[in-house]
Every structure is written in C-alpha cells, then in structure tokens.
Amino acid sequence: MPISGLVITFDQTFDDVGETIAMLRSEPTIEIGARDEQQCAIVVDTPSKADDKKIYQWVQDLPGVASIQIAFVGFDDEAIADSSSTTDSAD
C-alpha cells in the first residue's frame, strides 16, 4: 500500500485556494498537512500503485494546482507478510 508525501504548489494567479483545499479534504485517501498561500503538504494513502497514480493525476488536475513535488513514497509490507503467513499454514 503506497503512502506518498506530496507538496502542492498553487498557481500564483489563482484566487480560490480554499476551494481546492476543500476538494482535497473531500478525498478520503488524502490528509492535509501544513499549508500557506502558495503551497500545501498532503499525505496520500491508497491500496495500490494504480490508485496512487490516479490520485496524483486527480490532484494535478484540480483548479489552481501549478505543480506537485514528491517528498516521500513508502510501501506498506503488511499485505505481503500476511499473504506469506497464509501459505505457511497450508504446509
């Protein structure tokens, strides 16, 4: 399960950053972190790499988003550990 730390930079000419922040808050896989007039940190926690890419593109397409910088990407190994333990019990 990918967990991504991203920094969104807003277009300086965009006047309604609050609207975009509200849209981000409506997405359950996103947590809002520190923000100011020009940037906002978010954490994205999705069940798969494909879902992570979809959320990244969705954020990029939001009004006023000029760019996204990746600060961190991690993968949860719990699902892998769980699946290996079920094969061990079958032996």
Kindly summarize this structure in a few lines.
This protein has 91 residues and is of the alpha+beta class.
Explain what the structure shows.
- By secondary structure, the chain is of the alpha+beta class.
- The protein has one domain (2-90): Lrp/AsnC effector binding domain/regulation of amino acid metabolism (RAM) domain (Alpha-Beta Plaits), CATH 3.30.70.920.
- 37% of the residues lie in helices and 36% in strands.
- It is built from three helices and four strands.
- It has helices at 17-25, 49-60, 78-90; strands at 2-10, 30-35, 39-45, 65-75.
- A four-stranded antiparallel β-sheet has the order 2-3-1-4, covered by helices on one side.
- The longest helix is centred in the C-terminal third of the chain and has 13 residues, at 78-90.
- It is elongated.
- The two termini are 27 Å apart.
CATH A-level architecture: 2-Layer Sandwich
Question: What percent strand?
Answer: 35-45%
> According to CATH, what is the class?
Alpha Beta
CA radius of gyration: 16 Å
**Mean pLDDT, as a whole number?**
86
Q: Poorly predicted ranges (pLDDT <50, ≥5 residues)?
A: 79-91
Q: What share of the residues lie within helices? A: 25-40%
What is the terminal-to-terminal distance?
Answer: 27 Å
Return the string of H and E elements.
EHEEHEH
Tell me the CATH superfamily. Lrp/AsnC effector binding domain/regulation of amino acid metabolism (RAM) domain
Shape annotation:
elongated
Organism: Stieleria neptunia
Protein name: NapA signal peptide-binding chaperone NapD
